[in-house]
Design brief:
single chain, alpha/beta, Rossmann fold, six-stranded parallel beta sheet, 12 strands, 42% helix, globular
């Protein structure tokens, strides 16, 4: 069995789920993973290296590029997932121009496969800085990972459902910060009594310092706030009762989102920012998506009040997830040369 050296990014967020997923995918395609923390000394110089995050900090990204280039010269294969290709296309930025040239060069090397987690058809320009693409793993990972035991989540779900009292439930998950659009969401909540009467906004996650005042005002105005990290069981429980998922992120966060991806897997319609990648992605897969004009509260409120989509049918959701999974596994198998 082929052994792949998986260079794990580590840290909070989705990284543990990615490790579990790629272990399962490796076994499915006839290989196994040797997990190596990113900053450890990699003793296995030969064989395939697989970077779970190729474009991390500037220092780490340069290191990964140098390693991939040198390994290519010696016939060693390197595969890496690219999460922020938009950083190569910031207008007027010299750093972005340099980054774009370097990614274009490295992605075209023999034995190097840089894989975006954003489809080329949605953002054609990004194809110039990568070798190929897969779907964001959190759009198709649940068939591999399964769902956590949610027997302890019932009281929370019952509390929120009772508070909603026939109102539509809008759920925001993860970091509660300006970048994730939390402050904008609070502005909408505070600006419209009609919105508060028809929708219940629920926010769950760590509150950043820049959003603590917004969180206070949100809660005082009747928003449901869980100001702490929540585990997978509670998070999935909130997906289960959500009518809409908040993914209307700030312009400087225009990339794929695991929170959004899980909403797609649960069939929960999503709120995104007008002009964002997530809006374009929703259109590309015909998933119910409403794009709100960021920081234009009156127009956003009007759009939200007049949008009443249903959750996507389970069979249709399963079919979409299966298509995304099949494409992604096929691309990974090709990049890793495992047939």
């Amino acid at each position: 069995m082929q052994v792949i050296t998986y260079i794990a990014a580590g840290g909070p967020g989705h990284h543990d789920d990615h490790e579990r997923l790629f272990r399962a995918v490796a076994e499915e395609i006839g290989a196994s993973l040797r997990i190596v923390p990113r900053f450890s000394r990699i003793t296995q110089r030969h064989g395939i290296w697989f970077y779970s995050v190729f474009d991390s900090t500037t220092f780490e990204t340069i290191g990964a590029m140098v390693s991939a280039t040198v390994r290519s010269l010696f016939g060693q294969k390197t595969v890496g997932l690219v999460f922020r290709p938009g950083d190569c296309f910031i207008r007027g930025s010299f750093k972005a121009s340099v980054r774009r040239v370097l990614f274009r060069f490295v992605s075209r090397l023999r034995n190097v496969h840089l894989l975006l987690i954003i489809p080329f058809p949605v953002t054609p320009a990004f194809s110039s800085v990568a070798t190929n693409w897969i779907y964001d793993p959190q759009l198709w990972d649940l068939p591999y990972l399964g769902l956590p035991d949610d027997q302890n989540v019932g009281p929370l779900r019952a509390q929120i459902t009772a508070l909603a009292d026939k109102r539509r439930i809008v759920v925001a998950l993860g970091a509660l910060s300006p970048e994730k659009g939390f402050n904008f969401m609070v502005d909408l909540w505070l600006s419209s009594a009609q919105l508060r009467a028809s929708h219940l906004f629920v926010a769950a996650g760590w509150v950043w310092n820049e959003s603590k005042e917004a969180a206070r005002r949100f809660q005082e105005a009747g928003g449901f706030l869980i100001a702490r990290h929540i585990d997978d069981a509670a998070m999935f429980g909130l997906y289960g009762i959500a009518d809409l998922l908040w993914a209307c992120y700030a312009p400087d966060r225009d990339r794929s989102s695991g929170i959004h991806g899980r909403a797609v897997q649960f069939g929960v319609p999503v709120l995104t920012r007008k002009g964002s990648f997530l809006e374009a992605f929703g259109e590309s897969v015909a998933f119910p998506t409403l794009a709100l004009p960021f920081e234009a509260s009156d127009e956003a409120i009007s759009l939200l009040l007049n949008w009443n989509p249903r959750r996507v049918d389970r069979q249709d959701t399963a079919s979409l997830v299966r298509r995304m999974r099949d494409h992604s596994v096929s691309v990974l198998a090709d990049a890793l040369q495992v047939k």
